[in-house]
Specification:
The structure is a single chain. This protein is an alpha+beta fold. It has two domains: 27-174, no CATH class; 178-404, no CATH class. The chain has helices spanning 18-29, 31-69, 77-89, 154-158, 190-197, 284-295, 320-325, 368-373; strands at residues 98-106, 109-111, 132-139, 168-176, 178-183, 186-189, 221-224, 241-244, 254-257, 261-266, 305-317, 333-351, 354-356, 377-383, 385-391, 399-404. The strands form two sheets. It has an eight-stranded mixed sheet with strand order 2-1-3-4-16-15-5-9. Strands 6-8-10-12-11 form a five-stranded mixed β-barrel. The radius of gyration is 30 Å and the shape is elongated.
């Protein structure tokens, strides 16, 4: 008996109208309406959840930075909560979202209680056992002030008793000593940082709080490539500063981790270094000229804080006699051991023919003839700055890292 085959694109006998019948049955039973209502309402809940998550991320970061700046935190949580709520609202389409500080730990003081495991308001991940952190929760807030997200179709199916759902989200931010961050091309020796800050006891105010008279001129430090107060043996931290290498984009910086060795150039060789990897193909001197042009931009210069790696020792691989001079990058590789990060406002400097005196104090560093040939230098203020990075437990050099951890 020959096999039976069906021609593609044709219906079997009796199949006509089957789909119409099935749809009619589903409509009569309300199944399709229920599915449609569920899809619309679930989509609305998902969108609300995403907005609240974005709002919680922003609110937690704002709250953490405010708490870090407030000596009375966590006592001043009501004021910080207002700031967090404003940040959360900016991430909602209707500009409204409730935010509350759920719990945290600040300088050893625990406040809370934190949401229990398994609740929708609990942040993801594990809370830090030590250090500073803060958790912020966000919840639904509609234009008419209600805290329930109203259903689109769910009420028609479930009855008037269903008024909607409250959606929750949570975010956690930790802060403390940075263990890794994106660093500006300059590296500062630990010795020069200690000299400029009196061992970490004296900082200029945060650049956001500068006034015409504060910081005072005496806080501006001068950093030299060679003739510095940090001359020592070749195995320790030579000179005041060095130049990071292999940065393709100087606006974003190079990821650096404390406790590691990074390649760099002795600052005395700054005029001679030309590498296609550095700052989008520019020579170092060309890039510094652009940087100083920005410092002296019109209508008036303004403080610009950069994150710089701090190193405590230098080692060189290559011919010892040549490498000790710090002038022969073609034969030597210089490795700088990074121990942390500092926040610095650069105000002026001389790198060959690039740069100029401090826009803040009008002071020029060094002797021009030496700056031009063998002793580049710059001026600046160390401040207490904030950066995005990984929170660690090493030594602090004035910079604080803020990291989302839940």
């Amino acid at each position: 008996m020959p096999a039976v085959t069906w021609t593609a694109g044709r219906h079997r006998p009796g199949d006509r109208g089957a789909v119409t019948a099935i749809v009619a049955v589903l409509l009569a039973g309300g199944v399709l309406l229920a599915i449609g209502a569920m899809v619309v309402d679930m989509g609305q809940l998902y969108a609300e959840r995403q907005e609240l998550l974005s709002g919680a991320d922003a609110a937690a970061m704002v709250a953490a930075k405010a708490c870090a700046d407030d000596a009375n935190c966590p006592a001043d949580l009501s004021t910080i909560t207002q700031t967090a709520t404003a940040a959360a609202g900016l991430n909602a389409l209707d500009g409204r979202s409730d935010a509350s500080i759920l719990c945290g730990q600040v300088n050893g003081t625990i406040f809370g209680p934190c949401p229990a495991t398994g609740t929708t308001a609990k942040c993801q991940g594990t809370r830090p056992g030590t250090g500073n952190y803060i958790e912020v929760g966000t919840t639904t807030r509609t234009a008419d002030g209600k805290t329930l997200l109203p259903p689109a179709f769910g009420g028609a199916l479930l009855g008037t008793q269903y008024q909607g759902l409250q959606v929750d989200a949570c975010a956690r931010v930790a802060w403390g000593t940075p263990s890794s961050a994106s660093a500006f091309p300059l590296m500062i020796s630990q010795c020069s940082w200690q000299n400029a800050t009196n061992g970490g006891t004296t900082y200029a105010p945060s650049s956001a709080n500068w006034t015409a008279t504060n910081p005072v001129n005496s806080l501006e430090a001068m950093f030299y490539a060679r003739w510095s107060g940090c001359q020592s043996s070749s195995s320790s931290a030579n000179n005041d500063f060095a130049i990071l290498t292999s940065i393709s984009n100087c606006t974003t910086g190079q990821p650096i981790t404390a406790g590691t060795d990074v390649l760099g150039y002795p600052a005395a060789t700054i005029k001679a270094v030309t590498t296609s990897l550095y700052c989008q193909g520019q020579t170092i001197m060309e890039w510094f000229q652009q940087f100083f042009n920005m410092l002296f931009s019109t209508p008036a210069p303004s403080p610009h804080t950069v994150n710089v790696a701090v190193y405590d020792s230098t080692t060189a691989s290559g011919p010892p006699l040549l490498c000790a001079l710090g002038l022969f990058n073609a034969f030597c590789q210089y490795h700088y051991h990074v121990v942390g990060f500092a926040a610095l406002v650069i105000t002026g400097g001389v790198f060959g023919t690039a740069g100029g005196p401090s826009w803040r104090t009008a002071q020029a560093c060094g002797i021009p003839i030496l700056n031009t040939f063998i002793d580049p230098c710059f001026t600046g203020f160390f401040v207490t700055g904030k950066l995005s990075g990984t929170v660690g437990s090493g030594s602090s050099y004035g910079a604080t890292a803020f990291q989302q951890v839940g």
